[in-house]
């Protein structure tokens, strides 16, 4: 499950459809709230979390 705002995207949860069906509404609310928290963080806080290994970053190249 991924969410995007402006130039930042957050992947918060994934699962194989062979492992389970859809997530419950309460789970969806949880993941949306978590993604919103990450999307609202400033760059300094994200850098700290990256440096401490709490989150992983993925670089990408923009196409012109």
Estimate percent helicity: 25-40%
User: Alpha-carbon distance between the termini?
Assistant: 26 Å
Mean pLDDT: 83
Please give the largest β-sheet: 2 strands, antiparallel
Strand content: 5-15%
**Count of DSSP strands:** 2
Q: Could you give the order of strands across the largest sheet?
A: 1-2
| Unreliable residue stretches | none
| Global outline | globular
The number of helical elements comes to 2
Radius of gyration in whole Å, from Cα? 14 Å
- Count of the domains: 1
Give a short overview:
The chain has 64 residues and is an alpha+beta fold. Helix content is 39%, strand content 12%.
What do these coordinates show?
The protein is α+β, with helices and mostly antiparallel strands and 64 residues long. It has one domain. It contains 2 helices and 2 strands. It has helices spanning 25-40, 43-51, and strands spanning 2-5, 8-11. A two-stranded antiparallel sheet has the order 1-2. Strand 1 (2-5) and strand 2 form a beta hairpin. The longest helix is centred in the middle third of the chain and has 16 residues, at 25-40. The two termini are 26 Å apart.
